[in-house]
Amino acid sequence: MPKMPQFMAVMPIVALLTTSFFVLVVNRKIEEKGLKVFGYCVAGFLWLAAIIVLAGAAFGFGKAVCAGKKYSHSQRPAPIMQQGNLPAAEFPKPALAVKETRSSSCSSCAGNRGVVTKTR
Fold first, then answer.
1. Are 20 and 41 in contact (CB under 8 A)?
2. What is d(CA 39, CA 43) in angstroms, rounded to the nearest whole number?
3. Hey, what's the torsion of the CAs at 43, 46, 52, 55, to 10 degrees?
């Protein structure tokens, strides 16, 4: 079950949208063009803030729901078995590295010999 903070995001969303409504109502009564533009900008920012709060609540809700589906309360993830707890036959043995050197046919780079490692 999701936690309560995701549902509590409704209150700031309602407050932001109500404030933007009143900004737009006052904006209709204003006749000066500069203040009208400012009112529309304020209302736009209030809508953007409400969308951000809604997206954050949706993300938190989805995260809480997905986390709840992984494990029930009675199940816990199995502990990672360490190497000492398992028989030696289950672990592959590491391959030995074989070094080969190749001599360069170029006389100017005779000091630059590449080392090639191969694993079996």
1. no
2. 6
3. -80
Best CA proximity match to 39, nearest among 29, 49, 54, 52: 29
Cα(35)–Cα(27) distance, rounded to whole angstroms?
Answer: 8
Give per-residue burial for 51-82: e unless 16+ CB within 10 Å, then b. eebeeebeeebeeeeeeeeeeeeeeeeeeeee
Distance CA 112, CA 14 (A): 72
- Which has more pLDDT, 7 or 10? 10
- Is there a contact between 43 and 24 (Cβ–Cβ < 8 Å)? yes
Q: Which two tokens stand for residue 56?
A: 């954050």
**To which residue do tokens 């050197």 refer?**
101
Q: Give me the residue spans of the domains in the chain.
A: 4-70
Instruction: Record the pTM.
Output: 0.51
Percentage of the chain with pLDDT > 90? 37
